[in-house]
Structures are given as structure tokens and as C-alpha cells.
From TrEMBL:
Residues 1192-1234 are annotated as: Disordered. Keywords: ATP-binding, Hydrolase, Nucleotide-binding. Residues 1217-1232 have a biased composition (Polar residues). It comes from the Eukaryota. SMART domains: DEXDc (SM00487), HELICc (SM00490). Residues 991-1144 form the Helicase C-terminal domain. This is Helicase C-terminal domain-containing protein. SUPFAM superfamilies: P-loop containing nucleoside triphosphate hydrolases. InterPro entries: Helicase_ATP-bd, Helicase_C-like, P-loop_NTPase, SNF2-like_sf, SNF2/RAD54-like_C, SNF2_N, SNF2_RAD54_helicase_TF. PROSITE patterns: HELICASE_CTER.
Length: 1255
């Protein structure tokens, strides 16, 4: 068939030398596929030479120029260049059938590691390599793998043909790669692995789930089997004949054998959030607790393991060699002639102690410390710390003279079985509790807090199994790095100590205050929790980890980078990104300046170049940021041998291929997948759910309508945006949405978000100032703007005038509080307590026929406390105290304003009232009195836990035991019928109602970006007598630890108020089962991290999450837009663009709309100020006949009572005043009160619909 389709003209086969030349042995090459080259209409056969595949070697351009189509000339030049420089070998024949007008060319790729060529293919000029890579980028996409075509027959159907390169373009995002990484398989075969699989790991008290055991075994395999692994930078690629070669996509290097690289002893444990990464780490520690570190490898120096006993007295060759090397250099103390031959004969005890310290694995010595102590050997055992001598030796330079060479100095490096665990400072206490919970007592734990000094290196190495430090405390040791001081020839002069007939030198002379003891230990393991902080190469933490001598390193995090979350937000198609205008292949080839074949013109190449694949997605700057973070982890922290030896390797071969302007190069995503798979250990969520199912999680967005007064504030803010847009004509920097005003735009969003809850401003958001020039605005707009803008301006001025003319709105905005509506409060008492003007004392509106007054939340709380303490206090007394309280508040406000103005923060914030308001609230929340009270509550909770442990049934729920004032005297109070209604914040109303409905049986975790919002909620919780804790930036770290423990152990505290940026990572708060976000969260990773504080292993209740948003505002738009973007990101999730960068959100904010009058409130609070019993009793007394009411209860003053507030008048109801009396001694016990705030679960029963309060 061959001779029938191609008639050979004069020619000759390959010479014997060419046949013997490996460069022409095509059977050792990769049979990539075929290419069809168009021929001229009147082609004629040319001179060809036979090759061993019975085809013909492809002639050069000179022989084919008249044969091939003119458009193929440039492509023939490319083939000619690649053949000439031995990158490919090409054979050809004329086509058949449908390919009769084409020249079929077989392409063979020559591997760089071809045998018997003396490595000449690996040593080529850079210019040749650069040009060849550009040409291969054009050639490879044209190669077709079609077995019929390869055999010279007709082409098969398109379904049976495939492109050799780039057909199945992998378009996964980095987050999708992360989510699809395969779960680890327990393939390690060893006694330790078997013990972990069987659940018989010693020293681990808790039982691991099956998936957790697999992860621990995978970590163990990386640590204990650091054998070579296939190079992840090369991907397998097959030829037409099915033979597998290995290809590097960035360099286009082809190998017949895959390289083997050294595996790192560590990696990234990145299991799903809330699946127990902490216990996995502890399982690894417990499984290897008796394994000691080994000396750091050195090509220039033997480093035998020694102990003080072996160094001074044993006759092993390593001990003798070490002593001789030291004595050979120390001139002041020459070695004795018989030192090596006749050392002191060690005792059997000394030999035993040396063996125990140098071979600890499997001996379980820690369980025999009592026996050692009985034999008086424990101290000797602990002092006999194993070590090796680390010489600061550099590679020898043969050009140096012998006189310049100096003997390197040794440094003592202690070996250890200890693991350093570095955690965020707010998780230090939680990790300590986890260690005590999951590990048995023999595990020795050292917690380094704050500025506590580190023990000596020998103690760190010998006395502890886990050294727990915060990230800041660990990083502080980076400055103590004068390692030169540790290298010395100075012999230890410490006197030997005799321990039960064993002499050991306990060295104390090699300590330096400016050198951290961490540098003198060869650490077995370093673990960094929340290890995404290791993604920056410039931090002290990473710098210190590189300088320390560490055998194994682990990063533990659920989110290695911003986008790698492994979360499932729903199904959806991939986002479509705009195509880049640049074409990398075209730009790479044109011109080839400086290349060996620069004679190939750009016009020649334009016809040769065809793009066979069209990337769907171009990787963005966010992707590059994630890639750089991963590179920093592997290169600088984990120091993976392959990448640490060449810090640019990851960038050149991984990142640059993915970040090509026209999209990732073919197979570059496959390379990234292999790299991530070698370093990361994580289970797919489906495999985790086979072993354990968390309680159901429900998440809903609750849309609310603004309170009428909050609605005025929102419309005023919208009006100011509209006026700015119209007056600036939406151009130049005066326009708020100008690209240079990013900071102002962000502030607008924050203010708008605060207004969705409640926002105040003494300047009324400049409403008065705008209204003063309203005529000017209207005139300018009528002259130069459209009718649409004029209509918008008129609407804006209308809303500004409506708000500015409302005295109640103006009064509320002058006070940084969310006011509560109060029904039934006597006018005189209200005027004494309220900071509002008298003109707004009694208010009615469309939704309430009963008049109400706006009350300060702190005043309501104080009134309740006051009446509970003194139930007979009359109206006059309440009035006097009210005025005194207002005076104290005024002085406190002035004092706090002075503090704020004197502080640096106050100077930076200048006159921004919202910032000042937040600071003032923070002062209140962190007052010493409140902190002292909460500390006392923690002590009480701990005492209660001890009581339960002594007598209660395990797992039994014990309700908080508090006493409240239940005296019928409360019904006689002037405030007995006062009822608390809705606040001016609809979100706060919803939160209060939800807490009152569920706080008796469930705990709440409430998140907000704004500390001011959390302060408002805290005040409202005080009003309804529900105790809460705060986790904000102004609470010191030690107190935060106490708060977490208190919330988890105490039934008293039902609500945890948490600032989103501080409380969204690492914490375990499974005692809560209800989560409320006060505002929508744009970034999915932040929201999910926050939810995972509750929805994690250990949670036994269904978790209910609610996100509060205001209807018809940017919050509702943000929720819908966020969900649409999440759906587009697919099941793997990922980072959304900044909200100000999203066109939909930006357009909504830039085009203000005004809210209509709100409908009636869906939630109507009706909470009795003094409790239900007092209200019912007051109603009962009010319904009695008048005669019955004239028989007052008589009480005698106690002998020890001298309070001036008590009124001893016999007429309790004369002239409308209430009598203030004290009970007799017989009633003293019944009337004793507890002054703590009333708990929500005991006294408050909210109703959704307000009931009419009695007059």
C-alpha cells in the first residue's frame, strides 16, 4: 500500500551511522500523532529517504517549498528548526482518500533523557530552548491522534479522532481543584498505623472517627516514610502506540522516565471546617510521642547521637571521634595520649540510661518514672539529654589557601520528642483544654503565655511532650537569633553531678540572653494552627521557622488561602469571564528576537499559527494571590525540598503557566492538582459524612421593614447621595462614586449598614444645611440637568424636609442609643429620667392608639433594678433619683468625651460622631466594674460545675438557680403597669423577640461587623434581663478566653455578642445552636467560618442561622446578588469580588431610591417592666372595689432601718402618693431579693401582638 500511494524518486536509505545514532531511533521516541499539510494543486513527489517506520524522513524547506501550499511555508520552517535541533523527528508520506491533497507527517517527540547521547539534549543554548518552546506551542496543538491516519489510511470520523495536546482543556478553578482532591487512604502498613486504625492509640483518650484515623495515618506516612515520590511537575502523556512518557507543560520538556523527588516530612492538614483537625493533630502527637528527632542531615559532617554519659565515658567509635575532634582544636587543653584508648569504664546504670535516651521509641519509659524514682535514677535520666554537635561548616573552596581555612566551631543541639504547637492567641486556652480533654495524663504540656520566659534548651527538649505557644509569643523569639554565640570551642566547666552512682555534667554555661533556647534544639515537629498566616514570607513567624532546626512541619487550617474553602454553596455553571484581547501564543512567536532562526518573519508565522483551544476562564489577580500564598507556604514555611532549593521554581513552572494572558496553558491545571495533592491532606465532604453527620443546618434570610424613624434616617441618607450626584453632575472628584473616592464610598456603605440597624448624627446628616440652599439646588438642576434628575431632587428635598421638621426624629438623633417605646409610665417620672425634650414626652402614631414615650434603655434597666431592690419606693423618690442619674450621665459623657479627644484614636477620628459614639460604647462595655462582675460570674459557674460533678447525673441539664423579687409589693409600685414595646430598630425588635422565645432552651451567637450594633444589643438585653458576653476588639485576650469558657460552661449567659472580624475563626462554641447575623455578609468564607463556630463536631442540636436584612434596600439587593455569584462559582465556592467592584451593587448604591411608609410592624413586643406577676397583681388591685383599696397594708419599720427614703406616714394613698415602708422582721426573709437581672427564661413571656395596657 505504501508504494502504491507514494512513488519514491531517486533516494537512499539511512546510512549505517544514522541507523546506529540514538537520535534517529524513532522507536525510543514518543509517537505523538500526525499532521496533514496542504499541498499545491499540481504537486509532484520529491526526493525522500526511507526511515525505520517505512515512511520517509521529512525533507527540509528547500525540498518542500514548491510542494506545499504557500500558507504552510512558515509551519515547515518550524518543523525544520525543531528537527535540526533534535526536539522532534518527522516522517512523511502522501495522503490517501480524503487526504489525497495533503502530506501526512508523523511527529515523534524526542525525550530529553534519551539514552546513549551523553546528556547532550539537556545541555542546549538558552536561545535555542526559548525558540523551541515557542515553536512547540504552535506545533503540538496541530497534532492529531488517529490510528487510521497514523497507519497511512483515510481519516476516521471526528468522534474517533483526538488532539494530542490541549483538546480536553481543564477549566477548573483553584477552589474546584481543592474541593476535588482525593481523600487519603490508609495504605501505610506499620504497627503505629495499625494501632491508629484499630483505635488503640496509646495516650489518646478520645476515639477517632474512621476518616480522622485515615488523616492521621496519612500524616504519619509523610513523616516516617520520606521516600522519593514522583515529581508532581511532570504529567503523564501517551502516544498513539499507548506508551507513556512524562511532560512538563511550562518548559515543554519530555522524559521517558518520571523524575523522583524527595518528599517533605509534613504538609497542610486542611480538612473541612469543624471536622476535628485539633484531635487529629493530637492523635499524631500521641502516636509518635516517644519518637525522638534525628540529627539534621549533613554532607560534610558526621553527626552521631550522644548523651553526656556517652560523650564523657563510653568507648563507642563515635564518642571517641567526637572527643578527639574537640581536643585536637582546643589548644589550652590538649588531649591526653591515653584518652581514647583508656576512658573511664561506664557503669551498667550509665549504659542503661544512655540507651533509654537514645532509643526511646517503644520503651514507654514515661510509665515507669515511679520505678526510676524509687531507684533514684529519674533525675539522672532527665539530665542525660541526647544531643549532637552541629559544626558551622561551609563547603570547601579549592581556590582558598590552606592558611585561610579555619576549623568550624560546634554548637550543641539537643534532640527531643517534643512538638511545638503554635496557635492564635485567642485559641491558646482552648487548645490547652483540648489537650487535657483528649490526651491521657502522662502527656507533658508546657503552655508559654504572654512574655513568660522560655526554660533552658535542655529542659525544653527533655521535660515536655507539647510546647504550646501563641503565634505572637513564638514570633517574639525571632529577634533573639545571634546563633554565632552558640558555636564555640569553649569547654563546659560545670561541675559534674552524681546521681545515684552515675556522674552527669548538667551544663548551665551555654546560655545567652540574646539567643532563644529554641535555636539549641532539633525539634521533632512544628504545628501551626490557623496556618494561613504562614502564607506570607515576610512575617517573623515564617522567618523564625526557617531558622529553627525542625524535622517535620505542619500547617493546620480549613482555609489555606482566601479562595480555598472546600465549601458547598450549591450547584451552578462556571462564571464566564471576558476574553483577554492578547493572544499569548501569537505574541510569543512573532519576531523571535535573538533566536537562531530570527529569519522567520511574523508574516510567515501568522498563517502557521492556529489556536486549537479557547480557554473559558482567564485566571485573575485573586487567583495569583492564592497561588503566591500557596507558594510561600511550600517554599518558605514547609520548605519542600524540591521548591526550597530553587525558590523561583514554583513561580516559573506552576504560576506563570496558569496566569498566561489568554488562559492557563494546556495541562498546567493538572500540574497544580498534582502539586496540591502532594502537600495537602483533606477528605471530601461525602467521605466525612459516611462516618459522622452533623445536626441539620438551616439558614434563612429574614427581610424586615424599617421602623418609621429609622426609615426617615435612611431616606435622608439616600437624599444626600442623590443631591451629591445631581449637583456634581456625576463627574470629577466631587462625585461620591468617582473612582478616586473609594474610601468615601466604603464609608457610605458602612454608614448605610449602620442605618439599617440604627444610626445617629447630631448634625442630622447635613439635612439642615442642604435645605438652606434648596432653592439653589433646584435652580442649578433646572438649568443643566434632565427632567428625571429634577424630579429626583424634588423627592430628595421632600424627604429631607419631612425628617428635619419632625421633632421626635431630631431628638432621637441627638442620643447614641436605640430608644424603647414605653407604655403607661407616669409623666412626672418620665420627665425626671428622660434626656429627650418635654415636647416629645407623649407620642401616638398610626400604628398605636395608646400614647407612648421613648425611654433610654439604660434607664429602663436601672428602674427595674431600683424597684426590685426597693419595691416601696414612691413616685417622689423615683423622680429624685431620676434627676440624679441624669446628672451622673452628663458628667460621665463629658469625661468619656475628654478621654476620647485626648486619645490618638479620637484625634484621628476628628468630629465623626459615629466613630465617637462607637468609642464611647466601647468604654462602657469594657468598664472595670462590668469585667469584675463577669469574672465573679465565671467563678460562680466553675463552683457550680464542681457541684454538678460531685452529685449531678452526667449530662443532666441544671437550670440556673436564681431568686427574684416576687413580693406583692411590686404591684404597688408606680411602675407596676409599665410595659415595654418596640424599639426604633426593627432588627433589634426581631432579635429581642427571638431571644425571648428561645433563650430558655437554646443559646445564641450574634455576629455583627459593627461594635456599635453589638453595644445597642447589649443594652437591650439588659432591659429584658438576659445576660450576655462580648467578644470584640476592645476586650483583652485573657478576658476573651475567660468569656469563651464561661459561655460554654455557664447556663446563666445565653447570648454571645461577637464582632465578626475577631470571632469568625478557630473558636468552639457548640453550646450555642442559634446564630444571627445582624447584617448580610458579602464574603462567603467569612460567613461560613462564623457559622462553623457552632456547626461542628460536638454540636447535638439543629443549628438555625438567620441573616437580618432590610427590605427594598441595598441589603436585599446584596443578598440576591451574592447568591447569584455564589451559584456561578459552583460547588467549590470561592472569593467574591469586592462589593464596591461589583457592577450591580455599585449601580444600586449610585442610584438612590426612597422607601415608602412602612406597613404595620410584624413583631410587636409587649414586655412588663417589672415582670408578669407584678403586672397581673397591679391589674387585680386596680379592679378591686374602692373600699377594698382604702385598706392599706401596714408594715412596721425595722429597728435597724434608718433609710431616709422610707415614709412612716399612716396614710398610704392620701393625695395620690404611695407610701414607702419597710417590712417587719417576720417578713424579712420573704422580702429578701436578689439584685441580679431577671433571667429571660423565668419571668418574661413575650407576645407577638401588643395587648392594651391598663390606664
Amino acid at each position: 500500500m505504501f508504494h502504491e500511494t507514494l512513488q519514491c524518486c531517486t533516494g537512499s536509505p539511512l546510512s549505517h551511522s544514522q541507523v546506529a545514532d540514538p537520535l534517529f531511533n524513532i522507536h525510543k521516541f514518543l509517537a505523538a500523532g500526525t499532521i496533514a499539510i496542504s499541498l499545491t494543486p499540481n504537486y509532484a513527489p520529491n526526493i525522500v529517504v526511507h526511515v525505520s517506520d517505512l515512511w520517509h524522513i521529512l525533507p527540509g524547506l528547500s525540498a518542500l517549498s514548491a510542494l506545499v501550499h504557500p500558507d504552510e511555508i512558515a509551519f515547515i520552517r518550524i518543523l525544520d528548526f525543531l528537527s535540526q535541533h533534535h526536539f522532534i523527528r518527522a516522517t512523511c508520506r502522501f495522503g490517501h482518500g480524503s487526504l489525497s491533497s495533503a502530506l501526512l507527517v508523523r511527529i515523534y517527540l524526542i525525550p530529553y533523557d534519551l539514552a546513549n547521547v551523553q546528556g547532550q539534549l539537556r545541555i542546549r543554548e538558552d536561545a535555542i530552548l526559548t525558540a523551541a518552546r515557542r515553536y512547540l506551542r504552535i506545533l503540538l496543538p496541530r497534532i492529531v491522534q488517529d490510528i487510521s491516519e497514523w497507519n497511512g489510511g483515510d481519516a476516521q470520523s471526528s468522534t474517533l479522532r483526538k488532539l494530542f495536546y490541549g483538546l480536553s482543556q481543564d477549566d477548573r478553578t483553584m477552589a474546584e481543584i481543592y474541593s476535588s482532591l482525593p481523600s487519603p487512604v490508609a495504605s501505610e502498613v506499620s504497627p503505629l498505623a495499625n494501632a491508629i486504625l484499630d483505635g488503640t492509640t496509646t495516650r489518646l483518650r478520645s476515639e477517632l472517627h474512621p476518616y480522622q484515623r485515615c488523616s492521621v495515618i496519612a500524616m504519619l506516612g509523610k513523616e516516617l516514610s520520606p521516600h522519593g515520590v514522583p515529581d508532581p511537575l511532570y504529567i503523564p502523556i501517551r502516544g498513539v502506540d499507548g506508551i507513556e512518557f512524562y511532560f512538563q507543560p511550562a518548559t515543554f520538556e519530555l522524559l521517558s522516565e518520571r523524575p523522583i523527588v524527595q518528599q517533605m516530612r509534613g504538609g497542610i492538614l486542611c480538612e473541612e471546617l469543624g471536622t476535628g483537625k485539633t484531635v487529629m493533630v493530637l492523635g499524631l502527637v500521641c502516636a509518635t510521642v516517644d519518637q525522638s528527632s534525628s540529627p539534621e542531615e549533613s554532607l560534610l559532617d558526621d553527626r552521631p547521637v550522644m548523651t553526656p554519659i556517652s560523650f564523657n565515658s563510653l568507648t563507642s567509635p563515635s564518642s571517641i571521634a567526637s572527643r578527639q575532634r574537640l581536643n585536637r582544636v582546643i589548644k589550652s587543653r590538649p588531649a591526653k595520649s591515653n584518652e581514647a584508648e583508656s576512658p573511664q569504664i561506664p557503669s551498667l546504670r550509665a549504659i542503661l540510661l544512655h540507651y533509654l535516651r537514645t532509643h526511646p521509641d517503644g520503651l514507654n519509659v514515661r510509665y515507669h518514672h515511679d520505678d526510676l524514682e524509687d531507684r533514684q535514677l529519674l533525675q539522672a535520666y532527665q539530665a542525660n539529654v541526647p544531643f549532637y554537635l552541629h559544626y558551622n561548616e561551609e563547603p570547601l573552596d579549592t581556590n582558598w589557601s590552606r592558611r585561610r581555612r579555619t576549623e568550624p566551631k560546634p554548637r550543641i543541639m539537643y534532640l527531643t520528642t517534643a512538638t511545638i504547637i503554635i496557635v492564635p492567641v485567642n485559641l491558646l486556652y482552648q487548645w490547652e483544654m483540648e489537650v487535657l480533654k483528649h490526651c491521657e495524663d502522662p502527656l507533658r504540656l508546657l503552655v508559654i503565655r504572654d512574655t513568660k520566659p522560655l526554660p533552658p534548651a535542655s529542659e525544653l527538649a527533655s521535660l515536655y511532650d507539647i510546647i504550646l505557644m501563641s503565634q505572637t509569643r513564638f514570633s517574639a523569639e525571632a529577634t533573639k537569633d545571634c546563633l554565632e554565640k552558640l558555636h564555640t570551642w569553649k569547654r563546659c566547666n560545670c561541675p559534674p553531678v552524681l546521681y545515684s552512682q552515675v556522674t552527669i555534667t548538667n551544663c548551665q554555661c551555654h546560655r545567652h540572653d540574646d539567643v532563644s533556647p529554641l535555636f539549641q534544639v532539633r525539634w521533632k515537629r512544628l504545628v501551626i494552627d490557623e496556618g494561613h498566616v504562614a502564607s506570607s514570607s515576610t512575617t517573623n513567624l515564617v522567618s523564625l521557622s526557617k531558622k529553627l532546626s525542625i524535622e517535620r512541619k505542619w500547617i493546620v487550617t480549613g482555609t489555606p488561602t482566601t479562595n480555598l474553602m472546600g465549601l458547598h454553596f450549591g450547584e451552578g455553571s462556571e462564571l464566564q469571564y471576558p476574553e483577554d484581547v492578547a493572544n499569548s501564543a501569537a505574541n510569543d512567536v512573532v519576531g523571535l528576537p535573538g533566536s537562531p532562526r530570527s529569519d522567520i518573519s511574523s508574516s510567515d508565522l501568522s498563517s502557521a499559527e492556529e489556536e486549537p483551544f479557547k480557554p473559558i476562564r482567564v485566571w485573575t489577580s485573586d487567583d495569583r494571590q492564592d497561588l503566591n500564598k500557596l507558594a510561600n507556604m511550600m517554599v518558605h514555611f514547609l520548605q519542600a525540598p524540591q521548591f526550597a532549593s530553587d525558590s523561583k521554581l514554583f513561580t516559573n513552572l506552576v504560576i506563570n503557566s496558569l496566569m498566561a494572558p489568554s488562559g492557563p496553558l494546556p495541562h498546567s491545571i493538572e500540574v497544580l492538582t498534582q502539586v496540591m495533592n502532594t502537600v495537602m491532606i483533606r477528605h471530601q465532604i461525602t467521605d466525612v459524612e459516611k462516618d459522622i453527620l452533623l445536626p441539620i443546618l438551616s439558614h434563612e434570610t429574614v427581610l424586615l421593614d424599617l421602623d418609621p424613624y429609622a426609615l426617615k434616617t435612611y431616606n435622608v441618607m439616600q437624599a444626600t447621595i442623590a443631591v451629591n450626584a445631581i449637583d456634581s453632575e456625576r463627574v470629577d472628584q466631587d462625585y461620591l462614586f468617582h473612582p478616586r473616592n473609594v474610601g468615601h464610598l466604603q464609608q457610605i456603605i458602612e454608614n448605610m449598614s449602620q442605618a439599617m440597624f440604627w444610626h445617629t448624627d447630631e448634625n442630622y446628616f447635613n439635612a439642615d444645611e442642604i435645605l438652606k440652599d434648596s432653592e439653589g439646588y433646584l435652580k442649578r438642576t433646572a438649568e443643566r440637568a434632565s427632567q428625571q434628575d429634577l424630579t429626583l431632587l424634588k423627592d430628595a428635598l421632600h424627604h429631607l424636609k419631612s425628617a428635619a421638621s419632625d421633632p421626635v426624629w431630631r431628638a432621637l438623633l441627638c442620643h447614641a442609643n436605640v430608644f424603647h417605646r414605653a407604655f403607661g409610665i407616669p409623666e412626672a417620672i418620665y420627665q425626671a429620667w428622660t434626656p429627650l425634650p418635654a415636647s416629645v414626652s407623649s407620642i401616638t402614631d398610626f400604628f398605636s392608639s395608646n400614647p407612648y414615650s421613648f425611654c433610654h434603655p439604660e434607664h429602663l434597666f436601672k428602674l427595674h433594678q431600683l424597684i426590685s431592690k426597693r419595691p416601696l419606693l414612691n413616685e417622689a423618690g423615683l423622680i429624685d433619683i431620676g434627676y440624679a442619674v441624669r446628672k451622673e450621665e452628663l458628667l460621665r459623657y463629658r469625661f468619656n468625651m475628654s478621654r476620647l479627644q485626648m486619645s490618638k484614636a479620637g484625634k484621628r477620628q476628628k468630629d465623626h460622631l459615629s466613630d465617637k459614639t462607637m468609642k464611647l460604647k466601647e468604654f462602657d462595655l469594657t468598664s472595670p466594674g462590668k469585667l469584675k462582675h463577669i469574672r465573679q460570674e465565671l467563678i460562680d459557674a466553675q463552683d457550680r460545675v464542681q457541684t454538678i460533678s460531685a452529685g449531678a447525673t452526667p449530662g443532666e441539664h441544671v437550670a440556673p438557680h436564681e431568686t427574684y423579687t416576687t413580693s406583692p409589693l411590686l404591684a404597688k409600685s408606680p411602675l407596676a403597669q409599665v410595659r415595654i414595646g418596640n424599639t426604633t430598630s426593627s432588627k433589634l425588635n426581631y432579635i429581642i423577640n427571638d431571644i425571648l422565645l428561645h433563650a430558655k432552651t437554646e443559646k445564641f451567637l450574634i455576629f455583627s461587623r459593627s461594635p456599635l450594633t453589638l453595644a445597642y444589643i447589649s443594652e437591650a438585653l439588659d432591659v429584658i434581663r438576659v445576660k450576655s458576653l462580648h467578644f470584640t476588639s476592645k476586650v483583652n485576650l485573657k478576658t476573651r478566653e475567660q468569656y469563651v469558657t464561661t459561655f460554654e460552661t455557664s447556663d446563666t449567659y445565653r447570648v454571645f455578642l461577637m464582632e465578626l472580624k475577631h470571632g469568625a475563626r478557630g473558636l468552639n462554641l457548640v453550646s450555642a445552636s442559634r446564630v444571627i447575623f445582624c447584617e448580610p455578609v458579602w464574603q462567603a468564607d467569612v460567613e461560613t467560618q462564623a457559622i462553623k463556630r457552632v456547626h461542628r463536631i460536638g454540636q447535638i442540636r439543629p443549628v438555625i442561622v438567620k441573616t437580618l436584612a432590610i427590605r427594598l434596600t441595598y441589603e436585599e439587593t446584596m443578598v440576591s446578588r451574592r447568591e447569584a455569584l455564589r451559584s456561578g462559582l459552583g460547588s467549590s465556592g470561592g472569593k467574591l469580588p469586592d462589593m464596591t467592584d461589583d457592577r450591580t451593587m455599585r449601580d444600586f448604591l449610585a442610584n438612590p431610591t426612597f422607601l415608602p411608609d412602612p406597613p404595620p410592624p410584624e413583631i410587636e413586643l409587649d414586655i412588663p417592666l417589672l415582670g408578669d406577676e407584678a403586672a397581673r397583681e397591679s391589674n387585680r388591685l386596680a379592679s378591686l372595689p374602692e373600699a377594698g383599696a382604702k385598706k392599706p397594708l401596714r408594715y412596721m419599720l425595722r429597728d435597724d432601718d434608718s433609710d431616709d427614703d422610707f415614709d412612716n406616714s399612716a396614710s398610704a394613698h392620701e393625695e395620690g402618693t404611695s407610701m414607702q415602708m419597710a417590712p417587719t422582721h417576720s417578713n424579712h426573709t420573704a422580702l429578701s431579693v436578689n439584685f441580679d437581672r431577671l433571667h429571660a427564661s423565668s419571668r418574661i413571656s413575650p407576645t407577638i401582638k401588643r395587648q392594651s395596657s391598663a390606664a
